[in-house]
Design brief:
With 55 residues, this protein is α+β, with helices and mostly antiparallel strands. Helix content is 18%, strand content 22%. The protein has a single domain, classed as Alpha-Beta Plaits, CATH 3.30.70. It is built from two helices and four strands; from the N terminus they run E-H-E-E-H-E. The model has no long low-confidence stretch (mean pLDDT 96).
Length: 55
């Protein structure tokens, strides 16, 4: 199951920069994870400064 970005996202882009498979893209006022590309590694959650990413 892919990680998800919650509404706590501040749209900083740190998660996208930390994703090894480029599964994260900006979508309006926050970022979204493409579940079909996500490899469930958790790198994005480790880079999020506000803890907006959960499994």
């Amino acid at each position: 199951m892919a990680y998800k970005i919650t509404d706590a996202c501040i749209n900083c882009g740190a998660c996208a920069a930390g994703c090894p498979v480029e599964a994260i893209a900006e979508a309006g006022d926050k970022h979204e994870i493409n579940a079909d590309v996500c490899i469930d590694c958790g790198a994005c959650a480790d880079t999020c400064p506000v803890g907006a990413i959960e499994a």
